[in-house]
Amino acid sequence: MKGLQGDRGDKGVKGRRGPPGKPGAVGHRSTTQRQQSGPKPGPRSEPTRTKRPRTERQDDGRRHVSKRWSGDEADGLLNWPQGTKDDPATTCYELGLMHSHLKDGYFYIDPNQGCPCDAVKVYCNFTAGGSTCIDPVYSQIQISWRPKDKSNLSVHWFSQQRAGKKLEYSGVDVVQLRFMQFHSLTSFQHMTIRCTSSQARLLGTVNSIKGSIHLLGDSGNEIGSRLTTVVSGDGEIVVVVKAQGNVEQHQQDKELLPVRDFGVDTRSLSALESEFTVDIGPICFL
Questions:
Q1: 124, containing H or E segment
Q2: CB distance 223 to 216 below 8 Å
Q3: C-alpha to C-alpha distance for 58 and 64, rounded to whole angstroms
Q4: In what helix (H) or strand (E) does residue 207 lie, and over which residues does it extend?
Q5: pTM for the model
Q6: For the chain, which domains are there?
Q7: When comparing pLDDT for 213 and 6, which is higher?
Q8: What whole-number distance in Å separates Cα of residue 44 and Cα of residue 17?
């Protein structure tokens, strides 16, 4: 016979937590659940980037500088490059338009408008309209030859003295140089030949000097006399090369500068006159 139920005893000590159970089967979210799960995340915000400026050329040869906006264009805030290593301009011409108060001096430009890490240090001649000038690695060279050497070549080139190495220019690679040529309408370069009075007499008139002096351009072609101006006097001969590519038939002239090699026709000089000193000026683009 079953007796009466006794009183409830005291609560026992809590036992240890058991091991986790096995994972259940993957469920399926309904369309309703997906719509009610909350707002969809918006597009990931990108850091604000400042657009690089760009100097553009028009078909009529004129140039204008495109605006560079900082942040949203709706803000209407202009941010012009400063010509520094971290914030280079495209050309000195462009830099002068943005900052008319700047004095002539060294600034940084980035003609290909890419990463500022390959910006080039140039001399900006704002007095001359904003020309971009690059110094040669060697501003003065000696060109000499041995008159008694037997050679089938009448022109002696400076590169022959340097195992084929030609004139180089500070801090600029071939890519940046091509963009400088593209952005410019005119390029020019000065060279001064320092000679004795007897050498000047042997070279003769301006026309004969043009025939005796040979200049190799950046494109690998020799620079024609139509692009050179020669002034002779006081123991020196000044040679100026100027190329203008704003005319259709002269577009390729811009590829001639800078000068890469200097040569002299040794037949014009006597056996005693076998050396020249040449001052190489900067290559300038405008």
A1: strand 120-125
A2: yes
A3: 8
A4: helix 206-212
A5: 0.71
A6: 55-133 (3.30.750.130), 136-285 (2.60.120.1000)
A7: 213
A8: 43
Tokens 């004795």 correspond to: 196
Q: In angstroms, rounded to a whole number, what is the distance separating the alpha carbons of residues 104 and 127?
A: 7
Cα angle 66, 51, 108 (rounded to 5 degrees) comes to: 80
Q: Is 154 helix (H, G, I), strand (E, B) or coil?
A: coil
Structure tokens that stand for 265 in this block: 């026709």
Q: 138: burial class by Cβ within 10 Å (0-12, 13-18, 19+)?
A: middle
Tokens of 67: 């605006």
pLDDT tens digits for range 70-111: 444 444 446 789 999 999 999 999 999 999 999 999 999 999
**Tally of CA atoms within 13 A in the half-sphere of 176 that contains its CB:** 24
Residue 258, preceding peptide bond in cis (omega within 30° of 0): yes
Q: Which residue has the tokens 């030859």?
A: 145
**What backbone torsions phi and psi does residue 32 show, to the nearest 5 degrees?**
-65, -40
